[in-house]
Amino acid sequence: MKKLKGFTLVELIVVIAIIGILLGVLAPNMANYIANSRTKSQNNNSRVIFNASQSIAQEYKFKERKLKNKGNPVDVDDGDFYFYWDSKKGMTINATGGELTVDTEFTRDFAKKINKIFASSENTVYKIYINNYIVQSVVSGRNDTDVYMGSYPVKQDSRVEGRTVKGFDMSTIMD
To answer: For labelling, which of 42, 72, 95, 147 has a CA lying 20 to 30 Å from the CA of 123?
Structure first.
């Protein structure tokens, strides 16, 4: 009589059980790894936006200082505002009164300069808080309701549920 070659049913069940146990252990770890990498990616985006906007805010500060020193009657803002980019257009939000200004020459110019440096602007929504022409904080996400938001200078380390980038309280992420 010839012996048949192959696996027995018991051997197959043991192998399937081992694979099931490994998947049960790896799946939650993989989900955490993906969530952490998305948050870190947005933290890095926020850092790039922070540095780019700081350079641009300083340009505006010196530009307005030159205009002031020449004696021209210029309405010089105190440099205290929020700038919000919704991946298509920019808008400024008055830091004190909450008034929203959309599509002005300033917002177009400010957005153009930041997005020239920050190449992923078409896939990112961000909000910047600038006080006295010094960038205080930045928050960013892939969309306005992204739970994997990133921020700078204080980095996010977990999911942010129920908040939007536009409505984010910037005072929680300042040094």
So the answer is: 95
Q: Which residue has 């919704």 as its token pair? A: 86
79-90 residue pLDDT tens: 788 889 988 888
Least confident window among 87-91, 102-106, 116-120, 135-139: 102-106
Contacts of 99 (CB under 8 A, 6+ apart): 93
Token pair of 159 as six digits: 């999911």
- What is the spatial distance between Cα 98 and Cα 142, in angstroms, rounded to a whole number? 24
Cα(151)–Cα(128) distance, integer angstroms: 10
Per this entry, what is the length of the chain? 175
Peptide bond connecting 153 to the previous residue in cis, omega within 30 degrees of 0: yes
